[in-house]
Structure formats: C-alpha cells, structure tokens
Design brief:
Blueprint: H1 20-29, H2 35-53, H3 57-67, E1 72-79, E2 82-89, H4 92-109, H5 115-128, H6 132-146
Antiparallel strand pairs: 1-2
Helix pairs in contact: 1-2, 2-3, 2-5, 3-5, 4-5, 4-6
Length: 155
C-alpha cells in the first residue's frame, strides 16, 4: 500500500469567468477529449440563459448548481446478511461532483436541438427549483429521510 495519498490537482480557472468550477464542469461535459468544443457548448449555454432570463447567465448557473447540490445520500451497508440503505452526509467534494454530473446527465436527456440549448434549459429549470437534476436531489433526500431509522448503523 502507498505511504502517502496522491495530491489533488485543482483544475485551472477558465478564461472567461476566471473560475476553476467552470473548468471542472466543462471537464465533465467533455466527450473524447474535445475540451474546446465543451467550452463552446458551455459559453453558448450561458448566453442562452442570459437571453431567456435577462440576468447574468453565470450567476444563474451558480444558483442552479447550488439548488441541485445534495446534503445527504444513502449508502448500502451489509449487516448480518441483510443490506441496509444508511443515510450519510455527503463529503463537500462529492457534493459538487454529484451536482455537476446530475446537471449534465439530465441536460443530455432533455429534448432540444443542440447540447447548448439542452444545457441552458436544464440550468434555467434547476435555478427555479424544477427539472430532472433538481428532482434527483429531492429523491435522494426523500430516500435518506425514509431510511432515517437505520442511521444508527452509520460508520
């Protein structure tokens, strides 16, 4: 086993908004190493969000990301032959990861012409507290609430 854990390398901040979170989002959005295309999709989506809402697209995106960030999740744990869904708090880094992945996943599942259009629509929906990604967060919280009885099994 290793002696030390590998150090996490933070992604470089993007050129337009000077935010590392944008780069992290784009890295998840990217397919087949086409980062430039992914950045173009993201920036185009921000333009569309600005046009539809009349507000700053970047701020709406941050609000949407915040709205879909989960606080608790359920983790499976095997105890005496039975598997229990045990509610657990989500680590800060995982919170961001989950919210980014959910936003992108439910954007891809939406109807629309281009990925930028789908992403923009999902961001606007998430910022209002609706859409697939927000529903996923609500379902996750509901499942954790339903399994609160097994919280005493927590590690």
């Amino acid at each position: 086993m290793r002696k030390t854990k590998a150090k996490k390398i933070a992604p470089a901040a993007d050129a337009k908004y000077n935010d590392a979170l944008v780069t992290r989002f784009v890295n998840n959005l990217m397919w087949q190493g086409k980062k430039n295309t992914a950045f173009n999709i993201f920036y185009d989506a921000m333009e569309r969000v600005s046009k539809t809402t009349g507000e700053n697209g970047y701020e709406i995106w941050k609000k949407a990301l915040n709205n879909v960030t989960p606080a608790v999740e359920v983790r499976s744990r095997r105890i005496g032959g039975a598997t229990f869904q045990i509610p657990a708090e989500v680590r800060p880094d995982r919170k961001i990861s989950l919210s980014i992945k959910w936003l992108i996943r439910y954007s891809r599942e939406r109807n629309g012409r281009s990925m930028a259009e789908k992403l923009a629509n999902e961001i606007v929906a998430a910022s209002k507290g609706e859409g697939g990604a927000f529903k996923k967060k609500e379902d996750t919280h509901r499942m954790a609430e339903a399994n609160k009885a097994f919280a005493h099994f927590r590690i």
